[in-house]
Amino acid sequence: MEQIYIDRINQIIDDIKNDPGDHFRMADVTCYVKNIPDELAGSYVHCSTAFCIGGWANFHRLEQERPEILNNPLFRSVASALEPARKWLGLDDEQADALFMIHTEDGEAVTDLNTFDDQPIDKRRKAAVQVLETLRDDGIVDWRTALVDAGLKGILDY
């Protein structure tokens, strides 16, 4: 098992809680990036992960390790790297798979998150924050419980 980086998980929790609008959307697999050059300000950057968590983690990793790349329009393609996000958060493969790719009870990856995105933003945020807090505190990822607790029971069942 990897060493989970608590401070980095907390950064992602803060991003989700403090997102200024409705950028926390899953179906179009994009994440909102702050502190970017004016010509890209307010743009969506593809993160290619369920729940934008991998994209935000990779953004913060680049802020720390390679800030010069954030000024490059090609950053849009760089932000999609899940393996660097997994390592930056200190997750093992199983934790990363469970966090970045939500699964149904029978183990199938959910690839259509439009139903999730149609839900109120406060419920979506609550579920994601709970998942991250449980990961941070207990080392496990439990989307199903978080969705139920946020009032989103059954929305991803097929």
Could you walk me through the main structural features you see in this protein, from its secondary elements to its overall organization?
The chain has 158 residues and is mainly alpha-helical. The protein has one domain. 47% of the residues lie in helices and 4% in strands. The chain has 8 helices and 2 strands. The chain has helices at 6-18, 53-65, 75-78, 82-89, 93-100, 114-117, 121-138, 143-149, and strands at residues 30-32, 44-46. Strands 1-2 form a two-stranded antiparallel sheet. Mean pLDDT is 75; it is low at 28-38 and 40-51.
List key phrases describing it.
158 residues; 8 helices; 47% helix; single chain
By helix and strand content, what is the structural category?
mainly alpha
Report how far the terminal alpha carbons are from each other.
32 Å
Give the C-alpha Rg. 15 Å
Largest sheet: 2 strands, antiparallel
Number of helices: 8
**What form results from the Cα inertia axes?**
globular
- SSE order, one letter for each helix or strand: HEEHHHHHHH
Strand content: under 5%
Strand order in space, largest sheet: 1-2
Total individual domains:
1
